[in-house]
Amino acid sequence: MTTMKTDNYWPILGCGVGLRAEHYAYILAKKPKVDWFEAVTENFMDSGGRPLEILTQICKDYPVALHGVALSIGSADPLDENYLKRLKTLVDRVDPCIVSDHLCWSGVEGESLHDLLPLPFTEEAVDFTARRIQKVQDFLGRKILIENVSTYVTYRHSTMPEWQFLTETARRAGCGILLDLNNIYVNSKNHHFDAEEYIQSVPAQLVGQFHLGGHTDKGEFLFDTHSAQVVHPVWQLYEKALALYGPVSTLIEWDADIPEFSGLLCEAEKAKQIYQKFNIFRPLKKAVSFSPKKYTGEISHEEWKKIVSHQRRMKNLVRPGSTPADEGDFLNPQGSVSGRERMSVYAGGYVARIRESLAETYEAVKHVMGEDAFTRLAESYAQAYPSHSYNLSDASKELPTFLEQSTWKDNLPFLPDLARLERLIAESFHSFAKSKFDVLALAGLDEDGWNNLRIEFQPFVKIISSPWPIVDLWTARKTPISKINVTLEGRPQCALVYRREFEVFCRPISGFEYEFLKSFFSGKTLGQACEHLSALTDEDLPLQDWLAFWSSNSLFADAVPRGVVQA
Question: Which residue, 293, 295, 315, 291, is CA-closest to 303?
Fold first, then answer.
């Protein structure tokens, strides 16, 4: 049985900033004076390459919190066991000072919408969500914080204000609250309530962390973009919150249009000047009290049907290509527009995130197609291939198949293979490496041993063969289109994709080396692989050179003669 990791306190960490890839090099080189970092959980739990190594290094020098965006704690779907296992593996590895996620749902019926979608503020939703939070905490063996989210629609059937819903859920679940003050301010303007009443209504002992961030004024509503400095009214709300709650770990969030690290530090310093007024004695802990409700069994089927019905209707309004006639009638009007019309904020965000995921992985495809065509591609892809993974990077994995079936292939026939290459490069970057194989273990093998040798490669080793010069096209991804000079016809290319340290390489290889590697990937022994090549050519091939290159670059994960059982 897992022991719950809590001493009934929240750590008081000071004023920190979000850990973003744009600042990795600066942080490692300069070790800036910042109190702590918060890392987005999903950026590290599915990556065994450079991101995870950097997080591990930063954990040695700073307190680090993990903040998730895809737990989907309020979804009608069962909790994702794969997600929880990966989360626990990361939590156990880095031992973060705080673990948090959002009080919302992110997908339903097996589809992920990659957004923080609102829940109705009802008794049923409180009990349903609190049960799931307890399950997560039991699985992780520690308390978590849940964050209030910014919203652009509200439900007609809500029966309580947002702050009561947040408080009751945390109380019954026995968890804490990450209070995002910018989200409170955004929602107060979008839904017309008093932000001060909100913070006065949330019990201080439940609050373990603050978020501060910027937003964008869209005229009729405020949009939580995390792309700007904290506005003056939010700073005022922060000061009032500290006066009510005492010192609380505070984080500056900045996720889009990210400035240089000095810009983040400037915002953190502003926060610290206010924070220090209420932290005279600098305690290290903040005592809390938990009185969770003891749940037995599951919610009734009828209650579940209500939850899944509303989430299904919301999904239909978010996913492109769905045009239901009356799906918005369960939402309140938002100013001069209906709830259904305001749902366009979420719908537009879904397509934008899919485009972002595609652009991150398929840089060369985007470069060849151009911005406008790539945007149209993303819109079509988002409609044709709904995402089924909590990981936004996985949402792009079907693009090669989509391109194979699309009209874009008519004018740019190499696109599907170029996309396949880029997908392999992304997979290589994020793969979890196995222990390095010591080739000295093969010393003393006789001829039979070598012939029966099975070679297993590291998970980051990938191969691809194409009738097009895809390596050259990928290499030219940063060259202006007008200056790319790649002959397409009659120039097939094969490639070996691999990782050395934390950099991914794409090495052109001959068709024979490709066939040799392919033999090992299909489970053939060294002797069988050599026989396969002999059937293809009479040429004297540099097999030893290939094996030496693979070995010197630590591409082997294991090598053992067939029939030998390892201890």
Answer: 295
532: CB partners within 8 A, 6+ apart: 515, 516, 519, 524
Which stretch of 158-167, 243-252, 282-291, 371-380 has the lowest confidence by average pLDDT?
Answer: 282-291
Please check the confidence at residue 30 and state whether its pLDDT lies above 50. yes
Task: pLDDT band for 564, please (50, 70, 90 cuts).
Answer: low
- Burial of residue 380, with CB atoms counted within 10 A of its CB: 0-12 exposed, 13-18 middle, 19 or more buried: middle
Residues 425-448 have a mean pLDDT of 90
Kindly give the pairing relationship between strand 216-217 and strand 222-223: antiparallel
For residue 57 the two structure tokens come to 């290094």
**Whether residue 166 sits in one domain with residue 69:** yes
Residue 102 sits in a domain of what CATH number? 3.20.20.150
Instruction: Mean pLDDT check: name the lowest of 229-233, 428-432, 438-442, 530-534.
Output: 438-442
* Count of the separate structural domains present in the chain: 4
Q: How do strand 503-509 and strand 493-500 relate by DSSP bridges? A: antiparallel
The alpha-helical segments, DSSP class H, found in 331-456 are: 339-342, 344-361, 363-369, 371-384, 399-404, 408-411, 415-430, 447-451
For the cut 80, the answer to whether the pLDDT of residue 126 exceeds it is: yes
Give the confidence band of 322 by pLDDT, cuts at 50, 70, 90: low
The larger pLDDT score, comparing residue 441 to residue 43, is at 43
Q: At what angle do helices 511-521 and 543-552 cross, to 10 degrees?
A: 60
**Model pLDDT, residue 1:** 36
**Minimal CA–CA distance to 13: which of 190, 196, 301, 252?**
252
Q: What per-residue confidence (pLDDT) applies to 562?
A: 75
- With cut-offs at 50, 70 and 90, classify the pLDDT of residue 565: very low
Q: What is the pLDDT of residue 3?
A: 45
Residue where one domain finishes, among candidates 287, 313, 334: 287
Name the residue range of residue 322's domain. 301-344
Return the half-sphere exposure (C-beta side, CA atoms, 13 A cut-off) of residue 224. Answer: 25
Residues 511-545 as b/e (b if ≥16 CB within 10 A, e otherwise) read ebbbbbbebbeeebbbebbbebbeeeeeeebeeee
* SS3 at position 244: helix
Q: Is residue 293 part of a domain?
A: no
User: Looking at the domain assignment, is residue 349 inside a domain?
Assistant: no
In a domain, 515, yes or no: yes
Residue 449 lies in a domain: yes
At 297, the pLDDT band (50, 70, 90 cuts) reads confident
Residues linked to residue 102 through DSSP beta bridges, in sequence order:
147
Q: Mean per-residue pLDDT for 402-409? A: 95
Q: Name the nearest CA neighbour of 97 among 185, 203, 14.
A: 14
Task: Find out whether 224 and 186 touch, Cβ atoms under 8 Å.
Answer: yes
Residues 285 and 12 sit within 8 Å (Cβ to Cβ): yes
Q: Is residue 307 located within the same domain as residue 283? A: no
Helix or strand or coil: residue 525? strand
Provide the sign of the torsion angle of the four alpha carbons 206, 211, 212, 214, taken in this order.
negative
In degrees and rounded to multiples of 5, residue 485 shows phi and psi of: -125, 80
DSSP structure class, residue 134: H
Domain at 508, CATH number: 3.90.930
Q: What phi-psi label fits residue 501: left (phi over 0), alpha (psi between -120 and 50 degrees) or beta?
A: left
